[in-house]
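The freezer alarm interrupted the setup, so I double-checked each line after restarting. Inputs confirmed:
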Amino acid sequence: MARAAVPGGLSARRAWRDATLVERRPETDSAVTLVLDVDGWPGHLPGQHVDVRLTAPDGYTATRSYSVSAPEHGDRVELTIQRVPDGEVSTFLADGLAVGDAVRLRGPVGGWFVWRPGQAGPVLLVAGGSGIVPLMAMLRARVAGSPPFRLVYSVREPDDVIYRDELAAIAATDDVEVRLVHTRRAPEGAARPAGRLQGTDLLTATGWDGGDPPTCYVCGPTGFVESAADLLVGLGHAADRIRTERFGPSGP
Amino acid sequence: MTIPGHPGAEAAYDGNLMAGPLSELFALDVTVAVVRCRGCGASSEVATLRVYGPEPGLVGRCPGCDDVLLRVVRTPDAVWLDLGGVTSLRVPAPRVPLEEDVDRSAQT
Amino acid sequence: MDFVTRGFQGRPRGRDERLPPGQYLTDDFPVLSAGPTPPVDHDGWELWVATEDGARHTWSWPELMALPAETVTVDIHCVTSWSKLDTEWRGVSLDTLLADVETAADFALVHSYGGYTTNLPLEDLLDGQALLAFAYDGDDLRPEHGGPARLLVPHLYFWKSAKWVRGIELLLADSPGFWEQLGYHDYGDPWREQRYQGD
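Predicted 3D structure, all chains:
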């Protein structure tokens, strides 16, 4: 078993660090972005996530994983928290944590569901609900000359769109296409009626499917990820080019 | 995830779920390691295993035959790893200096 | 104590005398699986008991149904810290199944369809402490909860209550099962919080 020396790398990722809230940005009625200043942060790649641990005065701890929503930027780590009804940690982070307060954080975690700036080939991002968060980190990591991206973002209704204004701005740039899919209620005048994600929503721009197939990143709740991945396979995407990240409870 | 195109699979996760616990054991990213199944001989990237868990422990099963390939349990003070279901585990690693280079430098 | 998060209290953690240390109450019935749910129907189902000298006893599903069954209401405690109170099960007592089995064994290794195993002292299966359960809450035991039949040993952590039971191997020496090989406790008493090896 290879145990190559990576000085500090492993222990750095496993160490709990103080993360102080420096800014809070509401995104939707139920989602908020937290900007944390993490002491000695080793850096991360778009798509990776972190563990956040809260500790009560009696020693009780609760730990949850959250995707990072922005690319590496010094000691800053941005998380977008979707309030889960009854969510012990998400509601505290979304409502209870004040600027200046600290939590414990470690990471980054995950080496597969990442997009490395400089990675060749077009990218198809498929988000369900707050599954947009790690994909947003990938979009935000693009630079001039990055390969073309397409985002298909499924939300229940228009008010659920996280990063609305920024996505509109990104959609106006070259080589990025953003398509919203509304499952319950579409905005007035929308060309696509409300309904769950279909294969036609995922059809990629001409030219992608020939010699240069995209790498697909799918993130969302379990059921969404499964059906989106199946649709992609049905459209001819190779299973080994589909990377998925799911969230949700561990048992049915 | 359930491997696309394999109806009937029930695993709730793919091998990426193992990245966290395994990162405590390996200095390299084990999700891109390739394991060979002792049962059916198929080679699979750890990221593509059918993974059950995370509690009481992570169980990674072969996408080909569903045999248990590896298991990881994190107790409060230890990580337990079972690789009994695999004949080999290959991890891409940075190139190391050739032996003769090492020998030569040792003589100087 | 670890760093305290200012303002964080967490869920209410009221004590209940029926709750072993470190456990919390749930009304759900979480499903934890180490593998896919094995497809087992009643026609193909068979239970075997093998003794240390190789003697083998088997029951078909109709033979199991012909045995006297009982209904119990018990609390169950999962090592992953959830406990569920007042769960109702129906099944055949292990005292009934093992009544005619001649053995000097001290230990049992329970085998499941799908390959899962768990070990426990034979005496913990006897004296009304264990059931081969085929119904939960008045209905046939659903496959994800271990149907057609699972072991129910409520005084130990619930991983000992193997789902999809197909056989019981009676042994002179203890032999660790699926999770017991990988850090979990050989006995698993929730009141002594025997979660892991060494607890």
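Quick read of the result. Chain A touches chain C through 24 residues (CB under 8 Å).
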